[in-house]
Each structure stands twice: as C-alpha cells, then as structure tokens.
Amino acid sequence: xxxxxxxxxxxxxxxxxxxxxxxxxxxxxxxxxxxxxxxxxxxxxxxxxxxxxxxxxxxxxxxxxxxxxxxxxxxxxxxxxxxxxxxx
Length: 88
Prior knowledge:
mainly alpha; 2 helices
C-alpha cells in the first residue's frame, strides 16, 4: 500500500475511533447514568457532567482539527540562503 494512502486511512481510523469513544463515554454518563437531564433542579453531578462534556468536546474538536489540518513546518533558513544551509 502506498504511504500516502496508508497515512490517510490511519487518520480516518483514528478520527472515527476517538469520536466514537467520546460519544460512548458521554452517552453512558449522560443517558444511562442519568446526568444529562435534571430532576427538579441541577445537581452538582449534572454541573460536573456538563463541564466535562464541554471541555471534552473542545479537546475532541482540537484533536480533529490538528489531525486533518496539520500546521505547516516553518523553515529556519533565510530566503536567500542556498538549500541545506541555515543563516545565523
């Protein structure tokens, strides 16, 4: 398999795996344990769940952005230098 195709499939598999893991954790905590909905008023457990949900969602989005749009490598060589030499 070509290296580009292999790297692409690894990114797809990693993205799906992390997203499903995040979904299952939050679904278990929210729906099955009952932290998603309030009974009469929000309890401390509900508030902690929503804080966890928002923070973990932010980290999931950050992970997906960094996976699919990696930063470009910055060269330290000056534009006038020949390739392979760095200016001091």
